[in-house]
Amino acid sequence: MVTTRAHLITYGCQMNEYDTHLVQSQLVSLGADIVSSVDEADVVLINTCAVRGKPVEKVRSLLGDLRKIKARRPLVIGLMGCLAQLDEGQQIARAFGVDIVLGPGSLLDIGRALEGNERFWALNFRDELHGHVPPPPQGTLQAHLTIMRGCDHHCTYCIVPTTRGPQVSRSPDDILRELDMQLAAGVQEVTLLGQNVNAYGVDQGAQLAGYPSFANLLRLVGQSGVRRVKFTTSHPMNFTEDVAAAMADTPAICEFIHLPVQSGSNRVLRRMAREYTREQYLKHVADIRRHLPHAVLATDIIVGFPGETEDDFQDTLALYDEVGYDSAYMFIYSPRPGTPSYTHFADLPREVKTERLGRLVARQKEWSARNNATKVGTVQEVLLRGDAHSSGFLEGHTRGSHPTVVPHAVGADRPGVYRVRIEHATPHMLYGRTVDTAGHDLPLIPATVDTARPEAAALTAPLPMA
Ligand code: SAH
Ligand code: SF4
Ligand code: F3S
Prior knowledge:
Elements: E1 5-10, H1 14-29, E2 33-34, E3 43-48, H2 53-72, E4 76-81, H3 82-85, H4 87-95, E5 100-102, H5 110-115, E6 120-122, E7 142-146, E8 148-149, H6 160-164, E9 168-169, H7 172-184, E10 189-193, H8 214-222, E11 228-232, H9 241-249, E12 256-258, H10 266-272, H11 278-291, E13 296-303, H12 310-323, E14 327-332, H13 340-344, H14 350-373, E15 379-387, E16 393-398, E17 403-407, E18 416-425, E19 430-435, H15 454-460
Parallel strand pairs: 1-2, 1-3, 3-4, 4-5, 5-6, 7-10, 10-11, 12-13, 13-14, 17-19
Antiparallel strand pairs: 8-9, 15-16, 15-18, 16-17, 18-19
Bound molecules: S-adenosyl-L-homocysteine, iron/sulfur cluster (SF4) and FE3-S4 cluster (F3S).
The site of FE3-S4 cluster has 12 residues, from helix 1 and helix 6.
């Protein structure tokens, strides 16, 4: 390949981030340099998302800017990932003079795509993507590990099965091999990724083909020596109590579960084709709480699905209260061309959807404030990633995925996993101080703390003597 300076831009979910790394490593192995801005690049690759209208609009506007640059100097523009797989994405690619189009199953074609001077479009779903994932750099603390691609569900609002194709699970050997590379690099927390991790192996004939159940895969990963294991996303329809049992019997598996409910109304769930009822969902929550009384629950909710009435929305609010989630991703329904709900149902007025979202966000904030307040005074194990805006603070998250901030302390001024006593909580953040194993505060390094930050005052004030 001719020497190339490539800049990659990623939209969308963790799977897209993982895929961007895959492409990046392919490029490096082919001799390309990865650069951090469009100005330095002669190739710009955009890994796209199509799940809602907004990420599509962002890509359009970015392509508009890139087209202007391309009018002034040579620039190769590539569109990859979910939007690229769709007719909608290919129309956009044509309209903006995009040179390379690679669907999420064709990312390994990046080398071939850059070889020629022709336009290069590849939209196949290939199985062998994962053998090409490189080890993460030494010292990486947190890693993603894709255990399956695609989705076999047909939620009526969702474009993902079209963009990513049918579900294909990776073999356990392949997964454990990648995990070993991550462990050798120092990874402390691994997040297993898939659109529907609870259905792991089902596409391969599951146990018959020697694939473990998802619960047993969790156990295998949890016994590998990695300090923390998380996973996303858990589809409630395929959730089994054994997953809750695995979480309880394997200490490395964090007591955190992201279980998207989408709606609390059975009528809406049926129209979404989610394949579970409110009652079945709540039974899963009860099973989880029985095995793990301190489980932290998070969810996804779509508001303003076509035909959603005020009563349906009240059912969602009531379910939120019944579960008392620690956090939630909340979305306004976005009609996606090509999905059944786009074709068959009329969209609700924008004002109705935004007004409901406002009420749901307020409810979420109340619960997050309440749940976070209960953490004050407790000691949490926090994975501190890096400097919070170079201000003398480190930012990280608990086993329950609560974002947490601590000031630099002696022996705890760099990324790692530390014990943190929580001193202060807001709905979105826990603030604490690192402590030793006996629970004593590690001395602060005050010179590095930016006291202009509001939380600094609380955290750097001397503690009252016990
Ligand atoms: N496989 C995962 C979800 C992946 S998409 C699961 O089933 O749980 C992530 C989230 O985007 C979904 O949970 C849903 O809440 C949201 N989403 C998907 N399609 C959407 C649409 N058309 N409009 C608004 N939100 C959508
Ligand atoms: Fe989309 Fe449903 Fe598949 Fe999730 S399970 S990716 S929401 S079709
Ligand atoms: Fe992820 Fe968006 Fe594709 S959410 S699966 S990048 S459509």
